[in-house]
Amino acid sequence: MVEFIVNYMPERIDNVNAMEQQLPDLIKNYSPDKDAMGGYLDCLKVGGNVPMVLLEDDVVLCKDFKNKILRVIAEKKNVIIQFFSMRKKDLTIGSRYEYGRTFCMNQCVYFPKGYGNLIYDYYNDWERKDEHPTAYDYLIADFLKSRRENYYLSVPSLVQHISGKSLIDKRRSSKRQSLTFKEE
Question: Three-state SS for 92?
Fold first, then answer.
């Protein structure tokens, strides 16, 4: 059984409630006293030892999201799978394995059984936590690199990043959308 977990901010509760229409068992994590990384780590701990999909609170799910994502997971259940990408290669190559060090974007990611605890523990010794206090995609990239693991990038993207300013860093572009997302 795969758990679906979203870390959210109050400003995005309407979007999270919309996700819940497709994912009635969605676990909603709100960490008011934590920064972005702290909330992300809470989600990893909540998922702990079970297979899980971590979602950002600023995405829109494709139609039939749960069935689509579970089909891909069933085929690749032992590797981290990324379900959102903005790379141009998505249009020409499609789904593929990528080197762990290239991991970027955390809008919708599947973690196999036990990876929540592994990454949570890895964070304690992560050398770049002061340098990148909100970059949990860097955390995942470094974790994968340390284990010499690749991840699977699934195309088309099953979620779309909403247009708008980041709540974590206002300097981030508001134009961070997937080139392959299809609502139908």
Answer: helix
Identify any residues that bridge with 59 across adjacent strands, giving them in sequence order. 161
**Tally of CA atoms within 13 A in the half-sphere of 72 that contains its CB:** 25
Number of other CB atoms surrounding residue 71 within 10 Å:
11
Instruction: Kindly give the pairing relationship between strand 59-61 and strand 27-29.
Output: unpaired
- All domains in the chain, ordered by first residue: 3-161 (3.90.550)
Burial category of 74 from C-beta neighbours within 10 Å (exposed 0-12, middle 13-18, buried 19 and up): exposed
Nearest to 133 by CA among 54, 38, 32, 45: 38
- Per-residue pLDDT tens digits for 9-42: 887 789 999 999 999 999 999 876 667 788 899 9
**What 3-state class would DSSP assign to 20?**
helix
This prediction's pTM: 0.90
Write out the two tokens for 74: 């069933």
As a whole number of angstroms, the distance between CA 115 and CA 121 comes to: 10
C-alpha torsion sign, points 87, 92, 94, 100: negative
- Burial of 56 by CB count in 10 Å (0-12 exposed, 13-18 middle, 19+ buried)? buried
Calculate the alpha carbon distances from 47 to 11, 38, 119, 142, 178 in Å: 24, 14, 11, 20, 26
